[in-house]
Design brief:
Helix content is about 0%, strand content about 50%. The protein has strands at about 5, 10, 20-25, 35-40, 45-50, 60, 70-75, 80-85, 90-100, 110. By secondary structure, it is mostly beta strands. It is globular and about 40 Å long. The mean pLDDT is about 95. The strands form 2 sheets. The protein has a 6-stranded mixed sheet with strand order 2-10-9-4-5-6, with no helix packed on it. A 4-stranded antiparallel sheet has the order 1-3-8-7, with no helix packed on it. It contains no helices and 10 strands.
Length: about 110
């Protein structure tokens, strides 16, 4: 059974930090490019960051560039997103996904509010 399980979300004040993690199982995680995608209340899906299968290439949405860092550990089948200098507009449900959209997690809520 394929599983992607996100964790690490929560409530944080503006300017704060959170680290999201995604644990993958049931598929060849190390062969897939992966990404973090978010959905803010009342809005569509927005990709946030992408990482290649071997971690050599990373790409970020302009809205998070310089504040978020995506990483992975293929030995542990984990995908992480370090989020710094959080803004209220970062409030969303965050999902980890393969870049072909085949595999998705259930999402973790991030709320940035004072």
């Amino acid at each position: 059974e394929v599983q992607l399980v996100e964790s690490g979300g929560g409530l944080v004040q503006p300017g704060g930090s959170l680290r999201l993690s995604c644990a993958a199982s049931g598929f060849s995680f190390g062969t897939y490019a992966m990404m973090w995608v978010r959905q803010a209340p009342g809005k569509g899906l927005e990709w946030v960051a992408i990482i290649s299968s071997n971690s050599i290439e990373t790409t970020y949405a302009d809205s998070v560039k310089g504040r978020f860092t995506i990483s992975r550990d293929n030995a542990k089948n984990t995908l992480d997103l370090q989020m710094n200098s959080l803004k209220t507009e970062d409030t969303a449900v965050y999902y980890c996904s393969s870049t072909d959209y085949v595999y998705w997690g259930q999402g973790t809520q991030v709320t940035v509010s004072s």
